[in-house]
Amino acid sequence: MPSKFIKHFCCSVIFFISILEAIHAQHTSQLFLSGIDNENTVTWDFFCSSGRKSGYWTTIEVPSHWEQQGFGLYNYGRDYVTYGRSHEFADEVGYYKRKFTLPENFNDQVLELVFEGSMTDTEVRINGKSAGSTHQGAFYRFSYDITDLVYHNKENLIEVKVSKMSANNSVNRAERYADYWIFGGIYRPVYINAKPKEHIVHQAIVAQADGKLEVHLELANISTAVEVEAYLADLSGNMVKRWTTSLNEFKGDGGLVIQGQFENIKTWNAEFPNLYQLNLSIKDKSNKSLHEVSERIGFRTIEIKEGDGIYVNDTKVKMKGVNRHAFWPETGRSLNRSLDLNDILLIKEMNMNSVRTAHYPPDKSFLQLCDSLGLYVMDELGGWQNAYDTESGRILVKEMVQRDVNHPSIIFWSNGNEGGTNKALDGDFDLYDPSKRPVIHAHHRPGNAFNGVDTDHYENYESLISKFSDSTLIYMPTEFLHAQDDGGGAAGLHDFWELMWTSKMSGGGYLWVFADEGLVRTDMGNKIDVNRVNAPDGLLGPHRQKEGSFYAAKEIFSPVKIFLEKLPSNFNGEIEIENRYHFTNLSDVQFEVSWINYRKPGEPIAGHHVLEKSRVKSPDIKPGNKGKINIDQTALIHKADGLNITAIDPHGKEIYTWSWKINPLKDIMQSIDKLTEGDFPTEISSDDSLIVLSGGGFSLTFDKNNGVLTRIQKPSGMDLSLDNGPRFTYGDQHVKRIHIKDKAEIKSLTFEYDGFLKEAIWKINPSGWVELNYTYELPEGEYAYPGVSFDYPESNVISAKWLGKGPTRIWKNRSQGTIDVHQNLYNNTHTGSTPFDYPEFKGYFGDISWMEINTAQGKFYVVTPEDGLQVRLFDFFGLSGPKSFPELPKGNISFLDGIPALGSKLALGISSDASVYGPQGEMNHMNGVYSRTLYFYFDLIKNSSLTYDKTNRIPDEN
User: Fold this and answer.
1) pLDDT of 532 over the 90 cut
2) CA end-to-end span of the chain, whole Å?
3) Do 313 and 409 lie in a common domain?
4) C-alpha span between 774 and 759 (Å, rounded)
5) Residue 414 near residue 397, CB atoms below 8 Å
6) Rounded mean pLDDT of 626-655?
7) Cβ distance 312 to 300 under 8 Å?
8) Which part of the chain is the Glycoside hydrolase family 2 catalytic domain (predicted)?
9) How far apart are CA 528 and CA 835, in angstroms?
10) By the number of CB atoms within 10 A of the CB, which of 187, 838, 896, 958 ranks highest?
11) Are 416 and 443 in contact (CB under 8 A)?
12) pLDDT level of residue 25 (50, 70, 90 thresholds)
């Protein structure tokens, strides 16, 4: 079936269903002139004034942005500011037209033509006549009464002129000079609403936590209607109450308030989003329904208590929030319900409870899903650092609030962003919102607090402390920890959130931003463009690829807090936890315990085996309190490599899985220790410049001057190009002395050095395991990456597998991760840029017990029996710029006892200094002598000698 036919068929079915409903219940009927979303479009005739495919009539899919259909020119919002009128930029005009016929049941109806969103100035004509004034503003629903403009017995013509640049300069400055992609076209649906002559124009509902209900109705053309009937039911269809309000004193047009009071109502909040269905019907004296509307509502109360906090249903809450653009790479801001749903599920998967709709109202479906799934919403009026003028702003506030007023998920209105606030509009929100939700000023400068809330953007850790201790204002940054590239986001979030959680005057905050705004450029071979450093600011990639900050935020924001970092040697099954929910008792959370054995080096897949899985009794811990869970079955601690605990919320969703190593190397170390006999006893030979240690069927060659490995050679195979190490990551090193020791059949080679690195001892087990023991000494100071490095050609690498934290790379101030065996194919992704292939292969990887590097020359393995090893793989960066940041240690494979933290591009200009974001952002404070042992196995191509003890479940790789 042709795709175009499918699109028209889907729209026709939806239209037919709406007609059937209207016949029986006098609901509002809808006729879609466009498709219903970006995947179900309708073809219109189209003319583009300039740019690509311009100057002639052709066709276009509606809804869409015309740039994504191959028309016009692209621009990122700041382009207008950068280039100005003296350069070519995107200011084209699009002309749309389409013929349509009205169904018979639209006769004698009031007809309203509705545009859900069009960028930017939109002029409409029906059958050659103007439908009304030009609409200015890209993100708002607007409508025209076309009852007297249409034909009921013949074909109609709609013509729409859409100008990207508004004739109102304040609209351009508020919307089109912004720091995000700017488009043109009818990008949300267009449809006709048909209502009976006597009808409900609008309803604004106040449903409070105490069960009080007010419905503010606007009615039109009332003549025969005698009452309003209200019917409240739960979503299972169970009636709560039916009641009527007389219209005997009401005639014509105007407003009416009906009220109700309910007992035992289940309130709405983000943890338990309880909804009800409210049906409203106007009836005549014969009890016939003349017109009926319905809304899903939630009973909840929002209050800002100045000097105290933000309260939902009289419970103090803190926003674990993120900013979210309505955006998809292929279709820009033209979306669908599935995309909205996916974004909400990802936000909730990060254990967040709130979203700010930066920097404009979202699709209606997004808010409906926030209602049903449970997210607190800050719904924002457009205005990116520049505000609408008062005349146009008043129209847009009305359009936004009237569309969105009945969503229980919306708990704040935001009057613009970062200087985009027209304070003359503050009072307008209450005109259309009888619940009088708080209005917020989302600012990036101090001194702009409003309604008792300071939202100042991008504070550092010290100023955060100051705001919480010295102010009577609630501090809730509407943007913080800017996540360009891999910086910010969850890097620094642990310190910020712990301070926010424990501070009375904190209202939480909103990370910038949910996803990279990477656009598929139809003028550049469908490559993704993030406008260099302007748009790759997300915790996720453009197609919602999960970056490291996504996983870390999930742990940091977990409403179940477990403090235990390492299982004690005398572990008795008792683990302290804290309930960081606002409304949920931990007795409603399930805890699943898994005793596991990790897969071993050489096994073909990653992950672990589960020895035993069980549930523990959920403790009775109220929100904000601490308590303990008790694991009864601890006998497996002597058999298991690790312990995992998974918390599952009352809705069956995983909150987080915590993991601890127990004895992860017991089998591996036993195998290494047992392999003391073989056919290749170790030998040492030397000349003037080189010294060779051989055994296990291969030889290691070292430079006598600096003691670094220069060659790994296997006579029957190829060389392994791991060399030029160990080099200490700071300073130079020179060999002072070389020692050779004999112990049975094993000879050891010791290098003593000048400099920080003091000693390196090499041994080869006759079966092939190589042991390196090294010691270094540091004077008291701060060190970004203490440890040793080697070199290896990145071009040879195929994949890596490791037992440690994962699945993504870490930083010192973003060290979260699940302990398991993870694996990753090589990629050259730098966070925030193409190819957006995550997890990144290159980076710092944490808490490593062993790592397997698969190369074109074979595999090599590294094992360490000590805790706390971090491995650096190859060259990468956290932040792009004139000089990529942070600086890397020498070499390209490093074994480290500390790694650097990562700041953000907004770290107050201090070279992205991470220390401004809290204690975890500081350098590693070190002083004294440090030692570590590394075991290597070089499993070169041809005649591999790697054989593991099968009794210890390590497979033979011969």
Assistant:
1) no
2) 54
3) yes
4) 5
5) no
6) 94
7) yes
8) 303-523
9) 9
10) 187
11) no
12) low
Together in a domain, 605 and 473: no
Question: 521, 556, 591: which is the final residue of a domain?
Answer: 556
List of residues 6+ apart from 951 with CB closer than 8 A: none
> How many whole angstroms separate alpha carbon 331 and alpha carbon 37?
10
Task: Collapse the DSSP code of 427 into the 3-class scheme (helix H, G, I; strand E, B; otherwise coil) and give the result.
Answer: coil
Same domain, 376 and 457: yes
How many angstroms separate the CA atoms of 321 and 117, rounded? 26
Q: Is the peptide bond before 608 cis (omega within 30 degrees of 0)?
A: no
Residues in a beta bridge with 775: 759, 931
Cβ neighbours around 627 below 10 Å, total: 13
Residue-wise pLDDT for 379-425, tens only, equals: 999 999 999 999 999 999 999 999 999 999 999 999 999 989 999 99
Task: Determine contact, residues 220/199, Cβ cutoff 8 Å.
Answer: yes
Q: State the Cα–Cα distance between residues 76 and 332, nearest whole angstrom.
A: 12
Ranges 176-190, 226-240, 445-459, 592-606: which has the least confidence: 445-459
Domain with residue 336: its CATH number is 3.20.20.80
Contacts 24+ apart (CB under 8 A), 561-565: 562/645, 562/658, 564/658, 564/660
Q: What is the CATH number of the domain that holds 826?
A: 2.70.98.10
Nearest-angstrom CA–CA distance, 396 and 399: 5
Q: How does 374-397 read in b/e, with b if 16+ C-beta sit within 10 Å? A: bbbbbbbbbbbbbbbbeebbbbbb
Q: Which of 855, 849, 854 is nearest to 932 (CA)?
A: 849
Predicted confidence (pLDDT) at residue 375 exceeds the cutoff of 80? yes
Question: Quick one: pLDDT band at residue 249, thresholds 50, 70, 90?
Answer: confident
Per-residue pLDDT averaged across 107-112, rounded?
96
Report CA-CA distances (Å) from 598 to 114, 361, 668, 849: 58, 47, 11, 11
User: Which residue's entry shows tokens 């591009």?
Assistant: 905
The SS3 of residue 461 is helix
In a domain, 248, yes or no: no
Domain that holds residue 366: 302-556
- Distance between CA atoms of 642 and 594, rounded to whole angstroms? 8
- State the Cα angle at 142 between 141 and 144, rounded to 5°: 150
At 623, phi and psi to the nearest 5? Answer: -55, 135
Q: Give the pair of three-digit tokens for residue 579.
A: 């309930």
- Tell me how many degrees the CA angle 201-206-212 measures, rounded to the nearest 5: 130
Inter-residue contact 209 to 299 (CB < 8 Å): yes
Please write the tens of the pLDDT for every residue from 474-521. Answer: 999 999 999 999 999 999 999 999 999 999 999 999 999 999 999 999
Say what the pLDDT of residue 883 is: 79
What pLDDT, on a 0 to 100 scale, did the predictor assign at position 955? 34
Q: Which of 28, 437, 33, 25 is nearest to 201 (CA)?
A: 28
Q: Is residue 747 in some structural domain?
A: yes
String of b and e for 433-464 (b: at least 16 CB within 10 Å)?
bebebbbbbbbbeeebbbebbbbbbbbbbeeb
H-assigned helices in 34-159: 79-83
Q: In what order do the strands lie in the sheet with 309-312?
A: 302-305, 309-312, 315-317
Structure token pair of residue 221: 């053309």
Q: Output the six-digit token pair for 603.
A: 């096994």
Please write the tens of the pLDDT for every residue from 143-183.
999 999 999 999 999 999 999 999 999 999 999 999 999 99
Q: How far is C-alpha 920 from the geometric centre of its chain's CA atoms?
A: 22
Helix or strand (DSSP H, E) at 323: strand 319-323
The first and second tokens of residue 908, run together, are 């107050």
Please report the pLDDT score of residue 683 as a whole number: 87
Q: If DSSP codes are grouped into helix, strand and coil, which group holds residue 428? A: helix
Give, to the nearest 10 degrees, the angle between helix 364-373 and helix 337-349: 40
Q: What is the pLDDT of residues 779-824, one digit of tens each?
A: 999 999 999 999 999 999 999 999 999 999 999 999 999 999 999 9
How far is 598 from 816, CA to CA, in rounded Å? 19
Q: Would you state the pLDDT for residue 10?
A: 43
